[in-house]
From TrEMBL:
<feature type="transmembrane region" description="Helical">
    <location>
        <begin position="196"/>
        <end position="216"/>
    </location>
</feature>
<feature type="transmembrane region" description="Helical">
    <location>
        <begin position="36"/>
        <end position="55"/>
    </location>
</feature>
<feature type="transmembrane region" description="Helical">
    <location>
        <begin position="141"/>
        <end position="167"/>
    </location>
</feature>
<feature type="transmembrane region" description="Helical">
    <location>
        <begin position="292"/>
        <end position="313"/>
    </location>
</feature>
<keyword id="KW-0812">Transmembrane</keyword>
<keyword id="KW-0050">Antiport</keyword>
<feature type="transmembrane region" description="Helical">
    <location>
        <begin position="236"/>
        <end position="256"/>
    </location>
</feature>
<dbReference type="Pfam" id="PF03553">
    <property type="entry name" value="Na_H_antiporter"/>
</dbReference>
<keyword id="KW-0472">Membrane</keyword>
<dbReference type="InterPro" id="IPR018461">
    <property type="entry name" value="Na/H_Antiport_NhaC-like_C"/>
</dbReference>
<feature type="transmembrane region" description="Helical">
    <location>
        <begin position="12"/>
        <end position="30"/>
    </location>
</feature>
<dbReference type="InterPro" id="IPR004770">
    <property type="entry name" value="Na/H_antiport_NhaC"/>
</dbReference>
<feature type="transmembrane region" description="Helical">
    <location>
        <begin position="368"/>
        <end position="389"/>
    </location>
</feature>
<keyword id="KW-1003">Cell membrane</keyword>
<feature type="transmembrane region" description="Helical">
    <location>
        <begin position="113"/>
        <end position="134"/>
    </location>
</feature>
<feature type="domain" description="Na+/H+ antiporter NhaC-like C-terminal">
    <location>
        <begin position="164"/>
        <end position="469"/>
    </location>
</feature>
<comment type="similarity">
    <text>Belongs to the NhaC Na(+)/H(+) (TC 2.A.35) antiporter family.</text>
</comment>
Length: 480
């Protein structure tokens, strides 16, 4: 049997440089559309380069192919959720749930305070249900609609939604990643959350201040449709009532009960379909130009797999009130699969471990160790395109070193979240970045500079690490 050689640093560097250079070329040519095909081809090519290195070092193609298949299979849960979210958006547009949220939101939210309010609302919802993804797909979609209605900048609005969603997610004991990080690092959940507050709360406060300043100083572009016109068009096409919000309430209840995400969201989509049939009979009759039951069922069915489409007589409102469907998530699914293929090959060939081993040799101080952890988690996000991998892989690789240096495991679990979970939405080909783009309809290339919480938190964490602020020693080490 042919022996497998350990990869060199040059081996590890080649596919990464190949990926980075071609991604830069892709963005230069296609701009924010680069995630709609070009990046997927690059990720497959980069996986090919990494595979060639693996073959050179003695791995068989079968082993590499199995790693690719396994890497993609890890994403299937996220893909199921994506498809369910597509259906949910389609039926909630049809049922009047999202239009009702937009209608009442326009009455409540002032344009000057919109960004900070969007951030706070997203944080509250995410903290309650423990999911940044569900928050973006529900209240986030409505907030983006309100942003269009008041002439707010979509990229800033998306940044506000994402900032709030990730802050709420991080401090919620219901969050999957907030549970995963301490499990990997060997710390306690609530100790982990308390330790995270030192970096998350100041970062969130700074983000709120920046969103407030933007709201009052932004040279806002006039909305293509006035607020009154938006509300009038919604009233003219939908039966607007508080009953339309029941699907949202039921979804939140399912999330609070910690029911699995995929069935909860798909049930939410089905409830939206039933609500559309019950409460939007006039809308269905107008779209179908028929009162036949089969025609109404066809529209609802189509909303689930291909999205909902409405003609109001106003192009801007047609775009605002149309969308969703499982088909709208297929490009995002394509991006996730190719990104995870590349990440799986990089891990199998041993190229990721090479980087970490080199980093550990250079990380002499506690500050540099925590900083290295944050950058490794971020780098794992870039390479493997998955926030769970950005927690698990660096967590496994650094855990022993933290213990050897007498550091409490909460330092590691916090660093994994500060560098991994929080930065995942900033990367276009990451599962989170692709998801947010698919749901909020704004590319990460456009919103990243306005996701203030996600940008500030890792920087603040690094500053605290070098200052030694709230860097805890292992209690057993202190006793000795």
């Amino acid at each position: 049997m042919k022996s497998v050689k350990s990869p060199s640093f040059i081996d590890a560097l080649i596919p990464v440089l190949f990926l980075v250079i071609l991604l830069a070329v892709s963005v230069a040519i296609y701009g924010s559309d680069s995630s709609f095909g070009p990046n997927q081809i690059i990720l497959i090519l980069a996986a090919g380069v990494a595979s060639i290195i693996g073959l050179k070092n003695g791995l068989t193609w079968k082993a590499i192919e199995d790693a690719m298949i396994h890497g993609i299979s890890v994403s299937m849960g996220a893909i199921f959720i994506l498809l369910a979210v597509g259906s949910l958006i389609g039926t909630w547009l049809l049922s009047g749930t999202v239009p009702t949220l937009i209608y009442f939101g326009l009455q409540i939210l002032s344009p000057d305070w919109f960004y900070v309010a969007a951030c706070l609302l997203s944080a509250i919802v995410a903290m309650s249900i423990g999911s940044s993804w569900t928050t973006a797909a529900t209240i986030g979609v409505a907030l983006m609609g309100i942003a269009n209605g008041i002439g707010a900048e979509p990229a800033i609005a998306a940044g506000a939604v994402i900032s709030g969603a990730y802050f709420g997610d991080k401090i919620s004991p219901l969050s999957e990643t907030t549970n995963l990080a301490p499990a990997v690092a060997g710390s306690d959940l609530f100790s982990h959350i308390r330790h995270m507050l030192w970096t998350t709360v100041p970062s969130f406060v700074i983000a709120l201040i920046l969103f407030t300043i933007l709201g009052f100083t932004e040279d806002r572009v006039a909305a293509n449709v006035s607020v009154d016109s938006v509300q009038d068009i919604i009233l003219a096409n939908y039966n607007v009532s508080m009953f339309n919000l029941i699907p949202l309430v039921l979804l939140v209840i399912m999330a609070l009960k910690k029911l699995p995400a995929f069935p909860s969201i798909f049930i939410g989509a089905l409830i939206g379909a039933v609500w559309g049939f019950i409460f939007q009979q006039e809308l269905l009759a107008n779209i179908a130009n028929s009162t036949l039951l089969i025609d109404h069922i066809s529209i609802i069915w189509t909303a689930m797999f291909d999205g909902f489409s409405i003609t109001t007589g106003d192009d801007v409102m047609d775009k605002l009130l149309s969308g969703g469907g499982m088909s709208s998530m297929l490009n995002t699914t394509w991006l996730i699969m190719t990104a995870l293929m590349f990440g799986a090959v990089m891990e199998k060939v041993g190229l990721l471990a090479v980087f970490v081993q080199g980093i550990l040799k250079a990380a002499k101080s506690t500050g540099s160790l925590i900083t290295s952890t944050i950058f490794t988690a971020f780098g794992t996000n870039l390479i493997t395109a998955d926030q769970y991998m950005s927690i698990v892989m660096p967590g496994r690789m650094y855990k022993e070193e933290y213990e050897r240096r007498g550091l409490d495991n909460v330092n590691l679990s916090r660093a994994l979240e500060d560098g991994g979970t929080i930065t995942s939405a900033l990367i276009p080909w990451n599962t989170c970045g692709a998801y947010m783009a698919g749901v909020l309809l704004v590319s990460p290339l456009d919103y990243w500079q306005f996701a203030f919480f996600n940008l500030i938190n890792p920087v603040l964490a690094i500053a605290f690490a070098y200052m030694g602020f709230k860097v805890l020693k292992n209690k057993s080490e202190i006793i000795r």
